[in-house]
Amino acid sequence: MHRPGRLPVTAYIALGANLGDPQAALLQSIDDLAQTPDITLVCRSSLYLTAPIESSGPDYVNAVVEISTVLTAPDLWAAMQRIESKAGRDRPYPNAPRTLDLDLLLYGTASIQSAALVVPHPRMGERAFVLVPLAEIAPLSSNEAMLAAVSNQVLTRLPI
After folding, report:
1. Which of 1, 50, 89, 148 is paired with 156 by a 20 to 30 Å CA distance?
2. Which domains does the chain have, with CATH numbers?
3. Alpha-carbon distances, residue 135 vs 36, 45, 90, 129 (angstroms)
4. What are the DSSP E strand ranges found in the chain?
5. Each residue's pLDDT tens digit, 104-158
6. In the annotation, is 82 catalytic?
7. Active-site choice (32, 38, 44, 98)
8. Which of 103, 123, 127, 157 is catalytic?
């Protein structure tokens, strides 16, 4: 819900999918985010192909977007959940293959610890498929040590 007088916050969202047409799903979800009231898409990373981590199924397509929003973090998360549902997201078990996964990585400088939402995302520093695209669009969000810690995880930039 938009709150009048709120200043815009910069947020970063990780996107991933490995079922159906994952590349199309990511591009559609980026479009959906851009069309959501009170969200402005600032930029998006390249798309990356990655092997599943703690999961199974086909390779994932991943990306990160930067947005500006006046939505509260819970309202932004709810909007992200609606976009996942629209894409047919099912949650049969933890880390199941998925048609779309949206994770709120950073919401300004906020530190949020609730039952529904933890920001910064607790596992973002463990995943090349998050850190590499995030570093592409927000170089100050990571450092060499963080990127070196995930350098053994293979990812391939897709030509789009």
Report:
1. 89
2. 9-157 (3.30.70.560)
3. 25, 9, 29, 10
4. 9-17, 39-44, 48-50, 60-69, 101-107, 112-113, 118-119, 155-157
5. 999 999 999 988 889 988 888 889 999 999 999 999 888 889 999 999 999 999 9
6. no
7. 98
8. 103
Q: Half-sphere exposure (CA, 13 Å, Cβ side) for 20?
A: 17
Residue 6: closest CA among 64, 66, 76:
76
With the C-alpha atoms ordered 123, 138, 143, 60, is the resulting torsion angle positive or negative?
positive
Q: Is 21 a catalytic residue?
A: no
pLDDT in tens, 49-58: 998 887 778 9
- Tell which wins on pLDDT, 95 or 45: 45
Nearest to 17 by CA among 111, 114, 93, 89: 89
Answer for the pair 72, 2: CB distance below 8 angstroms, yes or no: no
Q: Is 98 a catalytic residue?
A: yes
Question: Residue 79 contacts by C-beta under 8 Å, 6 or more apart in sequence?
Answer: 33, 36, 39, 71
Residue 6 annotated as catalytic: no
Active-site residue (options: 32, 44, 101, 127): 101
pLDDT attached to residue 62:
96
